[in-house]
């Protein structure tokens, strides 16, 4: 008879062990293997709130990381590789459905679900998407960014020069006004 998670033996384990066990169970469906069955209210609550609670938790984590309380995860996200991946994110966003579609159109066998096949498929899709995104970044995005810099560099420099000259004129006008006010005050 399967064990209900709401009424079971209590164990004294560390929080890290509990989190690791929870991650293992949720990632590979091992709760069914060990005979743990959720009750109907537990399923209902999970289905009702899982997406919104996950999103809220992710938002809170990002805010905490922004304000310097990210801990190990913040130092992990500051690794140099994420600087390079950040340049590819838009291409990854655009190319991922295309890579998945190409895989589906070139498939030679019927899909069969297994954990290993699903993990392999996801890993391969991500790797191909990043590779294609890198190629698109080098052949399309980077040349156009360089072209934009060349075309609009003079315009930006001219705008900066005019603003500097305008600042110089306004400071000269302010100096003249202060001198005139000092003259008026000394005359009175």
UniProtKB/TrEMBL annotation:
Transmembrane portions of the chain: 53-76, 88-106, 118-140
UniProt keyword Transmembrane helix, yes or no: yes
InterPro entries, per the entry: O2_lipid_transport_reg
Segments of this protein annotated with the region Disordered: 157-188
Keyword terms, alphabetized: Membrane, Transmembrane, Transmembrane helix
Species of the source: Heterostelium pallidum (strain ATCC 26659 / Pp 5 / PN500) (Cellular slime mold)
This protein's name: Uncharacterized protein
Comp. bias (Low complexity): 171-181
The UniProt record lists the keyword Membrane: yes
